[in-house]
User: What shape does this take?
Amino acid sequence: MKRPTIHDVAAAAGVSRGTVSRVLNGDRYVSTSARLAIERAIAETGYVVNRNARSLVTQRAGSVVIVLSEPHEKIFEDPNYSTTIRTSIRRLAERDMSLVMMIAGDAGDRDRVLRYVKGGHADGVLLLSTHAGDPLVDALDGMRIPAVSCGAVIGRENVIPYAACDERGGAQQMTRYLVEQGRKKIAMITGPMDTPGGIQRLEGFADVLGRKASKKLIEHGDWTRLSGESAMARLLERSPDLDAVFAASDVMASGALSTLRAAGRRVPEDVALGGFDDSAVAMSTHPALTTIRQPLAEIAEETVRILLDLIDGAEHVPSVTIPTMLIVRDSA
Amino acid sequence: MKRPTIHDVAAAAGVSRGTVSRVLNGDRYVSTSARLAIERAIAETGYVVNRNARSLVTQRAGSVVIVLSEPHEKIFEDPNYSTTIRTSIRRLAERDMSLVMMIAGDAGDRDRVLRYVKGGHADGVLLLSTHAGDPLVDALDGMRIPAVSCGAVIGRENVIPYAACDERGGAQQMTRYLVEQGRKKIAMITGPMDTPGGIQRLEGFADVLGRKASKKLIEHGDWTRLSGESAMARLLERSPDLDAVFAASDVMASGALSTLRAAGRRVPEDVALGGFDDSAVAMSTHPALTTIRQPLAEIAEETVRILLDLIDGAEHVPSVTIPTMLIVRDSA
DNA sequence: TTCCACTCTGTGAACGTTCACAGATACCCA
DNA sequence: TGGGTATCTGTGAACGTTCACAGAGTGGAA
Assistant: This one.
């Protein structure tokens, strides 16, 4: 009825707790006969180590907490999330560690995260989509707990290491491509200006266009489809003669596409449209979106690796930036 | 340097461990003066209870594990997931419980989940997208751990309680609508036949059409966009004169839409197209999809409630089915 | 033979809680 | 006044591990 403990295994194998513990943790200095007997006893009794008891003495939690910093409603809109989560679960499982998910949408949430970490219930923290100025970042930094971010945290690039795609370079790629296609009046719909994707994709755009990137041709969105629609409407009103648009995300591009269609503009004939991310939606619009592919899997792998390195005691792990790739489809 | 323990709080407040513990757990029989002193001491010392120590003695884990049963690549394709996860996190947080995510894609994964649960590290299990015949279900049932599923588990409806939308009724709604629009030859693209959405949406379709639902007009997909594309192609080849298609998911519908367009069919003029889910993609296609809305938030809430009731000791909690809603847009 | 190093094992203490119990005080009612 | 009840508090034991230490056995070198 009761779950078997290390004592039961020891008794069944005819050894002491200490020896069983040594086998469990792969210590040296265990005779093969003892090891064999213990392994059989573990199988027979169906013994599973109690992590709570272990954590209590080792002061290690055996888990990592992933913190989603978006306000509640927006969570998971970004396809980036799923890849990072999936990768984290898999890599952590390899070490017999588990992943706890928490949301940090408001102050109460943040408090809960801090309490959790303070309680020693996580060996590390993985930040997702943290915005500039998030108080959580400094609080975590003060606790000296291993932390990493998937995508840079604006203003704290040197505090929290990160893995990210080359946001700026990717935006340059797309802008250059639009220029090469002979487009003369290229507009941009950016992301929120407190996120790396928002800021750096605009920088890349400006890098290529130089003085031609006028304020008039720039509108800001918040990554949602709806914001893409309305930003596009504002752009059309202000500059009806634009002949290309670079949206900082595929989702916003799909919104822009609706507006363009409603305004009677043909894509790509009248207006070329470029996206960013190469998320699922890029394939489902008509015409399919020309976009910039983020190496999501690689970014996720690197993010987790950085965190595990930190947990393993590395003093300072450098951030990683991974190149993007232009995917040409039908919209530009 | 070291984290404060309950002893430190007791010392600071001038009481004993026991009294502090009582305050922590909201027991009766604590004087207001003691309570006040302890609360101040907690604030001063920055004390946070150590869950490991607590779990060790209470035999409660303070966490729930959510198990994603899809093979690795498909995880999170379903927008259902995000809502359920988000809701779970929030409701659990209210009780100061946390959510651990695990993947059960292959046998090794399932083993890990079982070990985790067996180790007593979860108070309950929330199953997501579990397919018929998954060995995990019976294994969990044998362990008598509180378990719930978001969406029924085919063949185990009486073993694992669930919350789900009225799959069959929703499919009836859509089919009836297509008939009312005067469509004569209605085809269906189903989901996988080992999932409730696959089976029951087809049943609803057949309920309405009766004998007119011929095998020739039914094709199976696997929820992906690509499978929608190819199923549509097979349908067109076999029955070029069809005038309506009901796809069991919006994502598959968006695939079908591409194929229809490539084949020169106008939607909805030549072929009416209905989806299911009312997921984000339904708004981003052109024309926007007429679809069946699943009350995702409500389903998620009910799923979590059932699990919490079970954890609280309820002997048997009935499953819940929630009605769907027809959303008419442009595709039908 | 003696000593040291290496291998292997068992034991007590500690990790930070909760819980059951017992003791102390205060109050009310007969 | 006495006894019962309700309120409040402290204490020892237990939860299931790991870790440091000590002790025992073996083999080889001096």
About this structure: Chain A touches chain B through 51 residues (CB under 8 Å). Residues 93 and 248 of chain A are 34 Å apart (CA to CA). Chain A has three domains: 6-49, 63-165+297-323, 167-293. The domain at 63-165+297-323 of chain A is CATH 3.40.50.2300 (Rossmann fold).
